[in-house]
Specification:
Helix content is 57%, strand content 0%. The chain contains 2 helices and no strands. α1 runs antiparallel to α2 (39-56).
């Protein structure tokens, strides 16, 4: 199964901030996958993830929602 790809086109300034936060989270995950784990960066990435969840009103989903069949 492949992960779903989501296209992003910002429509307002809030989305640009969210996009910057997502890019930071992506960067942290990339660094961690390369073996460069920095707990401070991970903590900030988790805060950004929580901010984005609140902005989107996200209630959660199952892991199956992230995969194409």
């Amino acid at each position: 199964m492949k992960p779903k790809r989501i296209r992003f086109t910002p429509e307002n300034p809030k989305q640009i901030v969210e996009h910057a936060q997502l890019e930071y989270i992506r960067h942290v995950l990339q660094e961690c996958s390369d073996g460069n784990v920095d707990n401070t960066m991970v903590a900030l990435a988790l805060e950004y993830a929580e901010d984005i969840k609140e902005l989107l009103g996200w209630k959660g989903c199952s892991y199956g929602d992230f995969w194409d069949d």
